Model the fold of this input.
Amino acid sequence: MNPQISPFILFFASIFTSNIILSNFLGMCSFISISKDFKSSNGLGLAVVVVLTFTSMLNWGVYHFILEPFHLDYLRYIVFIVVIAAVVQILEMIIDRFSPSLYMTLGIFLPLITVNCAILGVTLLLQIRNYSFIQSVIYGLGSGIGWWIAILCLAAIRKKTDNASVPAGLKGPGLTFITIGIMAMAFLGFSGMLAVQ
Done:
């Protein structure tokens, strides 16, 4: 356990200075692909917040109450992915039931949250840093919110740059990667205030 890290610092650091997408570059595939449309970005961002929060709680419990006591640590990757897949499947059914248009817009990227490296990355960081249950939930929630803010910012910037006169060589992926790099530097500006290791 890391008692020296207060929940307040952990929450804000996971959103800004230790942003899972802009400092660790985890979850880039869906981040870049879905950020073309603001509504889809908002839906996927919210889905990532829910999945990260619930999987952080569930995987912490599974690891500390099942895997560790029974010396089954070697199964952690498989078990963590199974828990993530179950949470994503439930979320997918809920979105399909209550927002079919968002379900169709997200398409293949919704089930791909299961293999989104940001989700598994947060779970592994929780285990490596030996966070308590409360710290795990706060870090999972903060990481999800940070990912959501980042994809909304990128979607808004891409919407503006779609109509801008951009040199032909920078159109498309070039400008997107430059934008992500500048966003990462902007979020890094908070590192003097809060940081978690």
Notes: The chain is about 70% helix and 0% strand. Residues 7-192 form one domain.
